[in-house]
Amino acid sequence: MIDTIHKIHKIGFISLGCPKATVDSERILTQLRAEGYLISASYEEADLVVVNTCGFIEAAVTESLDAIGEALANNGQVIVTGCLGAQSDVVKATFPEVLAVTGPAALTEVMAIIHAQLPPPSDPRLDLLPPGGIKLTPRHYAYLKIAEGCNQQCSFCIIPQLRGPLISRPIGEILTEAEQLVSAGVKELLIVSQDTAAYGVDTRYRLDFWQGRPLKTRITELSRALGQLGIWVRLHYVYPYPHVDQLVELMAEGLILPYLDVPLQHSSPAILQAMRRPANSDNLLRRLDHWRSICPELTVRSTFIVGFPGETAADFEHLLAFIQAARLDRVGAFTYSPIAGAAANHLPGAIPEEIKEERLSRLMSTQSAISAQKLQARMGQTVTVLIDEITPTTIYAHSAAEAPEIDGVIIIEAQAKQLSPGEFIQAKIIDADEHDLYAKNLATHPRHHQHHRVKAQK
Q1: Could you tell me the pLDDT band of residue 456, with boundaries at 50, 70 and 90?
Q2: pTM (2 decimals)?
Q3: Where in the numbering of this chain does the MTTase N-terminal domain appear (predicted)?
Q4: Both 243 and 340 in a single domain?
């Protein structure tokens, strides 16, 4: 019987940061609802507020501190968790009045603090959850985090300090969660971790079991198994290890989406060495050519940092030449921002902000022309798209070549036929601009739940 003595408490929640942090937020929200707490959309109605922070770059730290300050000003009862929480001294020095501070992936600790402040109102064995748990994404796609932490030692990054070394989840546990998400109506799984292609390295690829059969804890086996669930599977944050070739082969087979998110960061050997990244851009160009030969429909996304300490004009020109040669489909770029605790802070040759911004503008201008050409080349193609949002006049969707929330969208004029978010339809590309595509709806795909092989057709 439900304990009627306890009030049903409302928890406010602010989620900042990357998709890995989003998964952490979803886990906390799911546990809150499982235990009978309500989620409040306003400071005024909340009994306390949880702020899941980001601490990756200076701008993210500022955003997180602003969010904590706003929550304190409007509510007063605040628990801080997430990556900035790993630097608890920074949070407590700024806001000594917070209830508690925890680091990332701290479900147990956060729930214990909430229990101490606001006892759970009901029997947690009661089924108070929607299928698939609480999600911050639309119902038809979900992030699936396969590991915590990172073993890389990039000089500009403090993620290993914040989240610790790589810890891979058991493959059977991941696949069971994936099955539950599919049963709940998810049509696309976005696979995330700090270093997705390294999945299983820390366990030495130990054997685990799923559906009674043994599987190695390795990204290739995981991807193949996920590809058998009949949904779209998209890989993010894939470091260019040699075995990525095997993942591209799975893409060519149609088991996972032909989309690679490979954060390359730079091309100049000197800068890559200073960043503690692979220092052979010629090899990267050969790898790109090889991947495209295996899977011609492959979409490649990457991110780059300009203005890294010691970046000379020649280094930057090397990067521009690489961008022109690589002809990547999607690029995100950032100016270098010092992060407290990062090894790169001690490197000589700091770049003035105005030069950083000028280089960023030149890089993005170069890439924008390439992206526009790439999108123009898709004119006339018929593609399968997944509907994300519908307004009275417009359908917003994405195909295998666009990651939701990150890349551009496909814009389709709404028609009389009744459609819903989460449906697959066939669309013909009729126009393009620098970032987005425009298409017309051809017909609803008759077997959308099995259409995860994506072949563009002229």
Answers
A1: very low
A2: 0.75
A3: 9-119
A4: yes
Rounded to 5 degrees, what are φ and ψ at 424? -95, 135
- Same structural domain for residues 182 and 302? yes
Domain boundary among 330, 361, 376: 376
pLDDT (0 to 100) of residue 103: 87
User: Is 18 known as a binding-site position?
Assistant: yes
Number of independent structural domains in the chain: 3
pLDDT in tens, 234-253: 999 999 999 999 999 999 99
How remote is the C-alpha of 36 from its chain's centroid?
A: 29
Q: What is the CATH number of the domain that holds 93?
A: 3.40.50.12160
- Comparing 391 with 457, which gets the higher pLDDT? 391
295 labelled binding-site residue: no
Task: Find the Cα–Cα–Cα–Cα dihedral 215, 220, 226, 227, rounded to 10°.
Answer: -130
H/E run at residue 82: strand 78-82
Q: Give alpha helix (H) positions in 75-143.
A: 88-94, 107-117
- The answer to whether the annotation marks 54 as part of a ligand binding site is yes
CATH of the domain at 211: 3.80.30.20
